[in-house]
Input
Amino acid sequence: MTTIALYATDTMADWEYGYLTAGLAMAREQDPDANRLIIASETGEAITTMGGLRITPDMAVPDLPALDALILPGAPSWDSGHDPVLRLAAELVAAGTPIAAICGATLGVARAGLLDDRPHTSNAAEFLTQATEYRGAEHYRDEKAVTDGTVITAGGVSPLEFAKLVFERLNVFPQPVVDAWYGLYTTGERKYYDQLAGA
Output
């Protein structure tokens, strides 16, 4: 079983992780042992998303078990703080365990120095320069989502591409299923629905 943690923080952007968490749930419908999704906030206390949803996490970040992946959604607050989860992210990256950051969370991982020496993306190149600790501008890619195998990054308007890279990195589905899923949600074409249903 793959153990995945979703970091929950106040004002996190609801649309940025929705495709991903729904896809993980779809995998669990096929195989209950496919993955385990844990919701963790900095202290374990409830948070309120940007859309006003109240989420009660399973635990605090320091109490997380060994992980196979860490998901960091965006929020307006990533320009400071979030130290416990950023320390965890750095430890995971050092161990070769994937982390995935989207939108504002890319600013957080830039502050932690995790984008200094690998290809990455964000909302825009200049967005990351808000982090004075950031030294990775030469590795910035003007793409929807980027992975180097360990760190996955995406802009806030690319939740599908973000989810796709996570699915592929964690082998959540066979590649033909990922391709059909992505085709369906990017085009709405019936052929992709049929491929997905057939798979």
